[in-house]
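#structure-requests
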Amino acid sequence: MRERYPQEGLIEIEDELWFDPHSSGLKNLPLEQALANRAIIDSAMQLVREADIVVMTLGQTEGWLDSQTGIAMNTQPGPAAVRRFKDRFVFIDHSYRETVEQVDRTIKLIRQECNPRMRFIVTVSPVPFNSTFRAQDVVVAHQATKSMLRAVAEELFRSYEFVDYFPSYEMVINTGRNLAWLDDQLHVDGEMVRHIMGTFYQQYYPEAEAVSVAPAA
């Protein structure tokens, strides 16, 4: 069952330029083009109904809420939007209990609406923060969030026989920085990505042929 919102939840950030709070990295666009992009994303998301396995990567506890629509946003609205709309956008930093409940609810919803036998592979993103909306140092915020998400993944893995944990996070953070990271120390090195994906295929698809994995952009 798909939720519906006026204008698909898009927000007119500037005159005739619309912001999609459910996407990340897209420019503000004229309404027709923004709706077309939203339809493509929605169509891709519907493919989960054909899947047997869902891979869930936990990356953040910080987020933003559109208080007018109730939509949890996939990206921060930007300073111009916050100034223009004042109290419409609300920063949220979810607790451990809230995060467990939300991921647990998502898993149950997918099994209910898509496939009652769906299995899940949970991972934690090793990519560090380069900024935070908390009133603390970004390094502290990063460590607190990643520790919490790793504990959430462990909780789900221990709770359900149909949830597995794949340790891509540990593979990166326990590898020397010169091997694991690009020079910016924010992006995982392409060779490391290939090693992780090779390990993934060996663990879950040992009968498959070798797969060529492109490095992350």
